[in-house]
Design goal:
The protein is an alpha+beta fold and 883 residues long. The protein contains 23 helices and 36 strands. Strand 5 and strand 6 form a beta hairpin. The radius of gyration is 29 Å and the shape is globular.
Length: 883
């Protein structure tokens, strides 16, 4: 039977099943036997109450569970119903995903009560899936300072998400980040509560209005001392309420988020996932959250084995559910026997259990999953990667890119140049998309963008130039010094099913060298994408005598044996990292070499590199030579970061800084383009280059946007959502710090950052004038309107982001030096002037008093308007007098 015939038969059976379900419902309706929970004309809350009365204990418990294993969720879905599953659609094309989602939702009609399941996934800046449109990363979207654009982008993502059958996303990340060493900085909207709130609201509104549940995360304060992910947090109630809580309050009260994710860390001694004060007292009672709380992946288990707030599975289940957490993610663990035992022993009351089930069921009715759970299979491919979405991704990338520095008008480059050097590993290959990205997008690299921009008349050459530290900047060992057992140049490769090199090889081949990045795939269709291992064998013939550096870079584990000795042993699961060893070798004397590799899940890559005795960095020499024969130079630099990949330093890693210095010394015009998700320090090279452009992770159209800006077809307009420190010693540093009792400088360093919050240059100039306040004296219930003019005084059109800050000059509780209170993005043609108006409302002037109650005290408020937090163009003041 052909594949098409199988699918045709499956489709007939599927729709027969659906038809029978609807016919059955129709018959029940005619005889008056339709239960109220199946009546779509009733309010969802009433339907939930009716359904809840009909559910057995097992059916209730299974609504609180989530799992990816079919032997768990599929079996339960057909009998009792099941809460959620995840990731099951990721590898499929859009049309295949829609078909599979419909099959799964149809099965929900077959359980006793016809309770549907929800499929969830990640959609931070595009759905994680095969081929979904990838927009700029969250930190890049924040740098647009354009909530309306964020809403448009999020609407596009939501439509692609729903088209594939996913109805719940684990996004957005609205943690306010004060220490950029946190590896997940890229996922946030930056360091300011107001900016994060505006962006978060724009994101959540788009998804929720399109019938997809959002999960603002991570509740709360997921990064703390040292920028370390999920470490213990000891925080004052004031800091939590004034800095970290506002974005959660905004997305719940203004945007209607229906889910919230608890974080891995503990807060003031209690795990966030079992913290009654956080999950019930604040989240539900104070903020009015009506939805359901899910755990970060594995966070419930962390209450037991990490934070030790409970001693058994049952105690853990009771602690979390009683605190206000409804669902354990990702799979059934504590929520298995532990939850069963806790309920059986009365550690969780029927009232508490029913309330948890009620919260999980309500969105299923609200989304219409009991009546209309299917998606349009034929529409999926038309929605995902549509031209409109690709155009929007390009628009967002153009608005996100920030011009940090432009000495002596280095940029824009002139298109009349004859030759251009492009340097950097992320310049030529597919554009890096950042964390939580899909794959198989038609990405535009920097190199491709420049080639498309300049055409064949401009000579564009590329070289890698440096490494990010993986391989220590060492090139892959070439085939010319590797020998297989039969004398070929290269090594014999064997691949095994499973990650432990057991049994017979399932696939074998000959590889000239070890330099592979399979991403989410595998070496061959015969080899599973997750859970495989490999062995390469042969000989190494050194070209000269001396001490060699051997480097293995792998995701996950690897071992290297030379002449029978194990010189590298890193047999653990981890993201790509490098391990090196030094060994003495003799010229022309072949030594046996064996490399073993294991991949458990996720991405897969391995590179075997080396450095010859007394060899300098060859890639840097290549970069300098290329720069010297070119009219101008574009260096694309990046960092190593991501979930569980926090940074101790903020320098760009590897030998990139050395390479930038060497290239800058040629005297050629040099621009450094940063492809990164967080701030970097630039002490060693920043003042040596003409221009610095921060592109963040600009999405699949990023190469086009960068080329547009470098050559002046687009005027850069992004503004920093985070402070860029001058030196790691200044961290944490942020614009809205409280005043110092002594000073701001160090004995060996200024206290000022490299680039301040809100900073971003343009190819034109903007003049601020005509500053007015509607009143100089108000009472505590009145507002003040701030008006001013902004004019484009340059020769090209451009976008500007006027920013409004205030300072409470005298207060019973110390107030920050500046606090962002409003902003707007505007577009101005050359010579055009626009009047801007901001209104400061009473709640924007208030702060929390000693009892954590909002208060507005009489006194003077200074008002600042500018192009960034440290580029203030206008200043005035007003006074609050009485109540």
């Amino acid at each position: 039977m052909t594949c098409d015939a199988k699918m045709s038969g499956m489709k007939r059976r599927l729709w027969l099943l659906i038809s029978l379900c609807f016919v059955s419902s129709a018959c029940l309706a005619k005889t008056g036997q339709t239960p109220p929970y199946k009546d779509p004309t009733l309010a969802p809350a009433k339907r939930v109450e009716d359904l809840l009365k009909r559910m057995t204990l097992e059916e209730k418990l299974n609504q609180l569970r989530c799992d990816i294993r079919e032997n768990v969720w599929l079996k339960a879905l057909k009998t009792t119903g099941f809460g959620q599953t995840y990731d099951i659609l990721r590898p499929l094309t859009s049309k295949e995903a829609a078909k599979r989602a419909n099959e799964v939702m149809a099965l929900g009609k077959t359980n006793r009560l016809g309770i549907p399941i929800i499929i969830h996934d990640e959609a931070l800046h595009g759905l994680i899936s095969n081929g979904a449109t990838s927009f700029p990363q969250s930190i890049a979207m924040a740098s647009t300072w354009d909530p309306a654009l964020v809403n448009r982008v999020s609407t596009a993502i939501a439509k692609e998400t729903r088209a594939r059958g996913v109805r719940h996303v684990l996004s957005p990340v609205i943690n306010v980040i004060r220490d950029p060493r946190w590896g997940r900085t890229e996922e946030t909207y930056g360091e300011d509560p107001l900016l994060s709130s505006r962006m978060g609201v724009a994101f959540v509104k788009a998804f929720e209005s399109n019938g997809v549940i959002t999960t603002p995360k991570h509740y709360i304060v997921n990064a703390w001392d040292g920028g370390r992910d999920s470490h213990s947090v000891q925080i004052s109630e004031r800091s939590m309420r004034e800095i970290y809580l506002p974005p959660f309050k905004a997305v719940i009260q203004e945007a209607g988020a229906r889910s919230v994710m608890s974080s891995y860390n503990s807060v003031n001694g209690v795990a966030a996932s079992a913290n009654y004060w956080l999950l019930t007292e604040i989240l539900r009672k104070e903020l009015g959250f009506k939805g359901f709380v899910v755990s970060d992946y594995g966070a419930v288990g962390g209450v037991l084995w990490a934070h030790r707030n409970a001693g058994t599975d049952a105690e853990t289940a009771a602690a979390c559910l009683n605190a206000g957490l409804e669902m354990e993610w990702p799979d059934v663990n504590i929520w298995g026997k532990g939850l069963d035992e806790a309920v059986a022993k009365g550690m969780i009351t029927k009232k508490t259990l029913d309330e948890a089930v009620r919260r999980v069921l309500l969105p299923k009715f609200q989304l219409g999953l009991f009546e209309y759970p299917m998606v349009d299979v034929d529409a999926a491919d038309k929605i995902v990667q549509s031209k409109a979405h690709r155009d929007l991704a390009l628009e967002a990338a153009r608005k996100a890119v920030i011009l940090l520095q432009n000495t002596s008008g280095t940029l824009p480059f002139k298109k009349s140049i004859k030759s251009l050097a492009v340097i950097g590993q992320d310049a030529k290959d597919a554009m890096p998309l950042g964390g939580y990205s899909g794959w198989n997008q038609p990405t535009v690299s920097v190199m491709k963008g420049l080639q498309d921009k300049l055409g064949p008349d401009v000579k564009i050459e590329w070289t890698r130039g440096a490494s990010y530290g993986e391989g220590g900047g060492l090139p892959a060992i070439p085939p010319s010094v590797l020998r297989s057992t039969d004398g070929k140049f290269g090594l014999q490769a064997e691949f095994f099913d499973g990650s432990e090199l057991k049994g017979n090889p399932i696939f074998a081949r000959f590889d000239e060298k070890l330099d592979f990045n399979w991403v989410n795939d595998s070496p061959d269709l015969k080899v599973p994408a997750n859970g495989f291992s490999a062995r390469w064998t042969g000989s190494l013939v050194p070209p000269k005598s001396g001490k060699y550096t051997i480097a293995i870079t792998a995701d996950d584990g690897a071992r290297v044996f030379v002449d029978g000795k194990r010189i590298i042993d890193d047999w653990t699961e981890h993201a790509a990292k490098t391990t090196t060893a030094e060994i003495e070798l003799t010229a022309g004397v072949a030594v046996p070499i064996k490399i073993e590799y294991m991949e458990k899940e996720g991405q897969a890559s391995i590179t075997l590199g080396w450095r010859l005795p007394n060899q300098q960095a060859p890639m840097i020499e290549d970069a300098v030579a290329l720069a010297e024969r070119s009219d101008a130079v574009v260096i694309v630099a990046g960092i190593l970061e991501g979930e569980a990949r926090d940074r101790a330093h903020l320098d760009i890693p590897g030998d990139q800084e050395q390479m930038i210095q060497a290239v800058a010394a040629t005297g050629k015009p040099v621009v450094v383009v940063l492809i990164a998700g967080g701030p970097v320090t630039m002490e060693k090279w920043g003042d040596r280059v003409g221009a610095i452009v921060d592109a963040w992770y600009p999405g699949q159209e990023g190469g086009t946007a960068i080329a547009d800006i470098l050559f002046g077809d687009v005027n850069p307009s992004g503004k920093l959502p985070m402070t860029f420190p001058l030196n790691i010693g200044q961290v944490p540093t942020y614009y809205n710090m409280e005043p110092s009792g002594r000073g701001y400088d160090y004995v060996d360093l200024t206290g000022k950052p490299k680039f301040a919050f809100g900073h971003g240059l343009s190819y034109t100039t903007f003049e601020y004038s005509n500053f007015k306040l509607s009143a100089t004296k108000i009472n505590s219930k009145q507002s003040v309107t701030v008006t001013f003019d902004v004019a484009n005084t340059g020769e090209v059109a451009g976008d500007e982001v006027p920013q409004l800050y205030i300072r409470d000059m005298v207060a019973s509780i110390v107030r920050p030096l500046k606090e962002l209170r409003d902003f707007v993005r505007i577009s101005l043609k050359p010579g055009e002037k626009r009047s801007i108006s901001f209104t400061l409302k009473p709640e924007q002037l208030s702060f929390l008093d000693a009892k954590m109650k909002p208060i507005i005290e009489p006194g003077t408020f200074e008002v600042y308007v500018g192009s960034s937090s440290d580029d203030i163009r206008l200043k005035s003041a007003f006074e609050v007098v009485g109540k």
